[in-house]
Amino acid sequence: TAITVWGTFKTSFKGHNGHPVVQNNIILLDAKRGKWELSELIQEIRDVLEDYPVDWVLIEKKASGISVIQELRRDPRIPLFEYVPDKDKTSRLQAALPTFKAGCVWFPRNQPYIQDVITELLQFPAGKHDDYVDTCSLVVNWMRMNLVLPRPGEMGWDEDEEEQFVSHRAKTYWGALQGEVAVKSERFLRRQWQG
After folding, report:
1. Which of 3, 23, 137, 147 suits 103 as a labelling partner, its CA being 20 to 30 A distant?
2. DSSP 37
3. Rounded to two decimals, what is the model's pTM?
4. Contacts 24+ apart (CB under 8 A), 113-120
Protein backbone atom coordinates (compact mmCIF):
# COMPACT_ATOMS: atom_id res chain seq x y z
CA THR A 1 0.00 0.00 0.00
CA ALA A 2 1.21 3.52 -0.75
CA ILE A 3 0.19 6.80 0.84
CA THR A 4 0.99 10.09 -0.87
CA VAL A 5 0.32 13.69 0.15
CA TRP A 6 -0.09 16.38 -2.50
CA GLY A 7 -0.26 20.14 -2.35
CA THR A 8 -1.71 22.55 -4.88
CA PHE A 9 -0.27 25.85 -6.07
CA LYS A 10 -0.74 28.29 -8.93
CA THR A 11 1.64 29.62 -11.54
CA SER A 12 0.92 32.46 -13.93
CA PHE A 13 2.25 33.20 -17.38
CA LYS A 14 1.30 35.03 -20.55
CA GLY A 15 -0.84 32.94 -22.84
CA HIS A 16 -2.07 33.54 -26.38
CA ASN A 17 -1.90 37.20 -27.44
CA GLY A 18 -0.21 38.08 -24.16
CA HIS A 19 -3.27 37.37 -22.03
CA PRO A 20 -2.46 36.31 -18.46
CA VAL A 21 -3.13 32.65 -17.65
CA VAL A 22 -3.19 31.18 -14.15
CA GLN A 23 -2.52 27.46 -14.02
CA ASN A 24 -3.18 25.07 -11.13
CA ASN A 25 -0.42 22.60 -10.32
CA ILE A 26 0.18 19.83 -7.80
CA ILE A 27 3.35 18.85 -5.97
CA LEU A 28 4.15 15.67 -4.07
CA LEU A 29 4.75 16.65 -0.43
CA ASP A 30 5.17 13.23 1.19
CA ALA A 31 5.06 9.54 0.32
CA LYS A 32 5.36 6.23 2.12
CA ARG A 33 4.82 2.62 1.17
CA GLY A 34 4.55 -0.53 3.27
CA LYS A 35 2.81 -3.77 4.04
CA TRP A 36 0.43 -2.93 6.85
CA GLU A 37 -2.32 -4.81 8.61
CA LEU A 38 -5.63 -2.92 8.62
CA SER A 39 -5.11 -1.40 12.08
CA GLU A 40 -1.56 -0.34 11.15
CA LEU A 41 -2.75 1.20 7.88
CA ILE A 42 -5.46 3.17 9.68
CA GLN A 43 -2.84 4.45 12.12
CA GLU A 44 -0.51 5.43 9.24
CA ILE A 45 -3.33 7.44 7.67
CA ARG A 46 -4.17 9.09 10.99
CA ASP A 47 -0.49 10.01 11.45
CA VAL A 48 -0.49 11.67 8.03
CA LEU A 49 -3.67 13.56 8.91
CA GLU A 50 -1.99 14.87 12.07
CA ASP A 51 0.97 16.15 10.04
CA TYR A 52 -0.99 17.71 7.16
CA PRO A 53 -4.22 19.78 7.21
CA VAL A 54 -5.79 18.04 4.21
CA ASP A 55 -8.80 19.10 2.17
CA TRP A 56 -9.46 15.64 0.73
CA VAL A 57 -8.59 12.04 1.59
CA LEU A 58 -8.87 9.89 -1.54
CA ILE A 59 -9.02 6.13 -1.10
CA GLU A 60 -9.41 3.61 -3.86
CA LYS A 61 -12.56 1.60 -3.19
CA LYS A 62 -11.26 -1.89 -3.80
CA ALA A 63 -9.41 -4.60 -1.87
CA SER A 64 -8.17 -3.28 1.50
CA GLY A 65 -9.42 0.22 0.62
CA ILE A 66 -13.01 -0.88 1.30
CA SER A 67 -12.18 -1.75 4.92
CA VAL A 68 -10.17 1.46 5.33
CA ILE A 69 -13.12 3.51 4.06
CA GLN A 70 -15.50 1.78 6.47
CA GLU A 71 -13.18 2.48 9.39
CA LEU A 72 -12.46 6.11 8.51
CA ARG A 73 -16.16 6.86 7.91
CA ARG A 74 -16.59 6.65 11.69
CA ASP A 75 -14.75 9.96 12.05
CA PRO A 76 -16.86 12.76 10.50
CA ARG A 77 -13.89 15.17 10.61
CA ILE A 78 -12.08 13.24 7.85
CA PRO A 79 -12.95 14.64 4.38
CA LEU A 80 -13.13 11.20 2.79
CA PHE A 81 -13.75 10.58 -0.91
CA GLU A 82 -14.05 7.12 -2.39
CA TYR A 83 -12.43 6.55 -5.77
CA VAL A 84 -13.79 3.69 -7.86
CA PRO A 85 -11.36 2.89 -10.68
CA ASP A 86 -13.13 2.31 -13.97
CA LYS A 87 -10.07 1.25 -15.99
CA ASP A 88 -6.95 -0.85 -15.58
CA LYS A 89 -3.73 0.66 -14.13
CA THR A 90 -2.09 1.28 -17.49
CA SER A 91 -5.14 3.09 -18.88
CA ARG A 92 -5.41 5.23 -15.75
CA LEU A 93 -1.78 6.31 -16.02
CA GLN A 94 -2.17 7.03 -19.74
CA ALA A 95 -5.23 9.17 -18.96
CA ALA A 96 -3.05 11.19 -16.55
CA LEU A 97 -0.13 11.64 -19.00
CA PRO A 98 -1.36 14.87 -20.67
CA THR A 99 -1.40 16.58 -17.27
CA PHE A 100 2.12 15.30 -16.53
CA LYS A 101 3.27 16.41 -19.96
CA ALA A 102 1.80 19.87 -19.46
CA GLY A 103 4.10 20.30 -16.46
CA CYS A 104 1.29 20.51 -13.91
CA VAL A 105 2.73 17.73 -11.70
CA TRP A 106 5.83 18.51 -9.63
CA PHE A 107 8.25 16.35 -7.65
CA PRO A 108 10.68 17.93 -5.14
CA ARG A 109 14.32 16.94 -5.43
CA ASN A 110 15.26 17.21 -1.78
CA GLN A 111 13.05 14.51 -0.24
CA PRO A 112 14.14 10.92 0.51
CA TYR A 113 11.02 9.29 -0.94
CA ILE A 114 11.24 10.92 -4.36
CA GLN A 115 13.67 8.46 -5.94
CA ASP A 116 11.33 5.53 -5.18
CA VAL A 117 8.32 7.34 -6.64
CA ILE A 118 10.04 8.41 -9.86
CA THR A 119 11.76 5.03 -10.31
CA GLU A 120 8.42 3.27 -9.98
CA LEU A 121 6.80 5.60 -12.52
CA LEU A 122 9.67 5.07 -14.97
CA GLN A 123 9.67 1.29 -14.60
CA PHE A 124 5.91 0.86 -14.93
CA PRO A 125 4.49 -1.59 -15.99
CA ALA A 126 7.61 -3.79 -15.76
CA GLY A 127 8.69 -2.70 -12.27
CA LYS A 128 8.47 -4.68 -9.05
CA HIS A 129 5.97 -2.25 -7.47
CA ASP A 130 3.14 -0.09 -8.80
CA ASP A 131 1.59 1.34 -5.62
CA TYR A 132 2.99 4.83 -6.19
CA VAL A 133 1.87 4.68 -9.82
CA ASP A 134 -1.66 4.02 -8.57
CA THR A 135 -1.64 6.99 -6.22
CA CYS A 136 -0.13 9.35 -8.80
CA SER A 137 -2.66 8.46 -11.50
CA LEU A 138 -5.49 8.50 -8.94
CA VAL A 139 -4.73 12.01 -7.72
CA VAL A 140 -4.16 13.47 -11.19
CA ASN A 141 -7.32 11.96 -12.66
CA TRP A 142 -9.47 12.83 -9.62
CA MET A 143 -8.17 16.41 -9.56
CA ARG A 144 -8.89 16.79 -13.29
CA MET A 145 -12.40 15.36 -12.93
CA ASN A 146 -13.08 17.79 -10.08
CA LEU A 147 -11.60 20.75 -12.00
CA VAL A 148 -8.69 21.35 -9.62
CA LEU A 149 -6.23 20.64 -12.46
CA PRO A 150 -6.74 21.71 -16.07
CA ARG A 151 -7.85 19.19 -18.62
CA PRO A 152 -5.69 18.55 -21.69
CA GLY A 153 -5.96 21.41 -24.17
CA GLU A 154 -6.79 23.99 -21.48
CA MET A 155 -3.23 25.06 -20.77
CA GLY A 156 -3.44 28.35 -22.66
CA TRP A 157 -0.16 28.32 -24.59
CA ASP A 158 1.10 27.31 -27.98
CA GLU A 159 4.43 25.55 -28.61
CA ASP A 160 6.41 28.79 -29.01
CA GLU A 161 5.16 30.11 -25.68
CA GLU A 162 5.68 26.89 -23.74
CA GLU A 163 9.49 27.10 -23.65
CA GLN A 164 9.37 30.67 -22.36
CA PHE A 165 6.88 29.66 -19.66
CA VAL A 166 8.93 26.68 -18.49
CA SER A 167 11.96 28.95 -18.09
CA HIS A 168 9.90 31.55 -16.19
CA ARG A 169 8.30 28.97 -13.90
CA ALA A 170 11.69 27.59 -12.85
CA LYS A 171 12.50 31.05 -11.46
CA THR A 172 9.18 31.44 -9.64
CA TYR A 173 8.89 27.96 -8.12
CA TRP A 174 6.27 27.68 -5.44
CA GLY A 175 8.87 26.91 -2.76
CA ALA A 176 6.83 24.40 -0.78
CA LEU A 177 10.00 22.56 0.09
CA GLN A 178 12.52 25.41 0.55
CA GLY A 179 15.07 26.27 -2.05
CA GLU A 180 14.97 23.28 -4.38
CA VAL A 181 13.66 23.49 -7.92
CA ALA A 182 11.21 20.68 -8.59
CA VAL A 183 11.85 17.97 -11.13
CA LYS A 184 9.55 18.65 -14.05
CA SER A 185 7.28 15.71 -14.71
CA GLU A 186 7.62 16.30 -18.45
CA ARG A 187 11.31 15.39 -18.32
CA PHE A 188 10.78 11.87 -17.05
CA LEU A 189 7.73 11.40 -19.25
CA ARG A 190 9.84 12.07 -22.33
CA ARG A 191 12.26 9.38 -21.17
CA GLN A 192 9.40 7.01 -20.39
CA TRP A 193 7.38 7.30 -23.57
CA GLN A 194 9.95 8.16 -26.22
CA GLY A 195 12.50 5.51 -25.31
Report:
1. 3
2. -
3. 0.74
4. 113/30, 113/31, 113/32, 114/28, 114/31, 114/183, 116/31, 116/33, 117/4, 117/28, 117/31, 118/183, 118/188
